[in-house]
Amino acid sequence: MAITRFAPSPTGYLHIGGLRTALYSYLWAKKTNGEFKLRIEDTDQARNSEDAVKAILEAFQWVGMPSDCSIEYQSKRFDIYKKYIDKLLEEGKAYRCYMSKDELAQLRAKQEANKQTPRYDGTWRPEDGKTLPPIPKDIDPVIRIKAPLEGKIEFDDGIKGFMSFDANQVDDFIIARSNGVPTYNFVVAVDDSLMGIDEVLRGDDHLTNTPKQIVVYNALGFKIPKFYHMPMINNPQGKKLSKRDGAMDVMEYKRLGYLPEALLNFLVRLGWSNGDQEIFSMDEMLELFDPNNINKSASSYNAEKLLWLNSHYIKNVTNQRLIKELEYFDCKIDGHDKKEMLLDLCKERANTLIELKTSIENILLTPTSYDKKGVKKFIKENTIDMLNSYIQILKDNQQNLHIPTDIEGVTKPFIQENELKFPQLFQPIRISLTGGTQAPSVYDIIAILGIEETIKRLEVAISQNFGKE
Ligand code: GLU
Q1: In a domain, 455, yes or no
Q2: Which of 9, 13, 201, 213 for mutating ligand 1's site (highest number of atoms within 8 Å of CB)?
């Protein structure tokens, strides 16, 4: 039973790297009958924005991964952090440091000149028998935690394997600033403990924070969670994923016409696999996902694959669902009597919901102009006579023409009797009905529009001579 969390900092929108971390955490919690918790890491007041919090929560709602507890906000937990800082001070595991900014800068400059890694030198660290400098009056102290001076800080990472850091790589870092605001590594460790998180999945950009957090866990006597530090998602060139490559706001994928199923399926495969299986329903993800099988190397973003997955899900979700999704794009077809036929036809060739909307509107909206190239190629001298005869056939059989095969039943004999080639009839019909030559099967379009509307559009095209001068 794993209790996992996702802990975004609302300094920007949720991007897909974050969503993948959240997905893996969610899957692992659910698979083990545990809990998935959301925590908003909003202690950095200068960089946080409420809009970003809203956008993050909206993204979670869109993909359908709710938190199992009420969402925790670090900005509302300052009393809790203070309590633990006071506890460490009382127990002598943390101390006040009055080093001024200038002194700290000098120390750093000296260390850098000596080619040493900058680190706090322990001036204010209390030790038995050590006399501390006199307390300056004009300085509000920071609070530093006593990090171990020697030995190793070690943990077994579920992806990276056994990790061992020399303790002296971690100095007595600040856990509360002079204004009392606690620092990042301190609050993460406190929160993960108090929220009962026992498995932490996060990006390996956080790997260097982990030894510091372990110092906090140890100082507070908290149990250290199991860590999984996941490799990054790169662009196809192996570089850091940029906005242009797809590292954009998760909600941008919605606006571009992706289904959340496709995005989650795409993300689950970015860094994890189950043989060569590509399509995973949520149930399958839940059955098969195991963080111990996350790849050790970085994965690479593949926009075509996401598009391919999206077209798969567009074909496979219910029409009712598509109708609902299309409403977001202001495409309302729920009241159309042939909506099922319309969707069955159009979803076959749509990679995104926007493409689906476009091909639906291509059929439903009366053309406002006729494709010039198509007109030049397919509208010949005898075309109008041919269309007029075809209109007559439609009128004569109007009562019996409902489904595509009905229309095929009268159209094929017409083609044979008049010794036509299919495009000779079909392309002028397509141009009349949709304005262009790219539309799907003529029988389907006519069935969807109905005979009355079909005749009307044919007659309009004829009367306008297809826009020819
Ligand atoms: N708030 C951190 C971030 O957005 C994540 C912290 C963590 O996962 O430990 O990168």
Answers
A1: yes
A2: 9
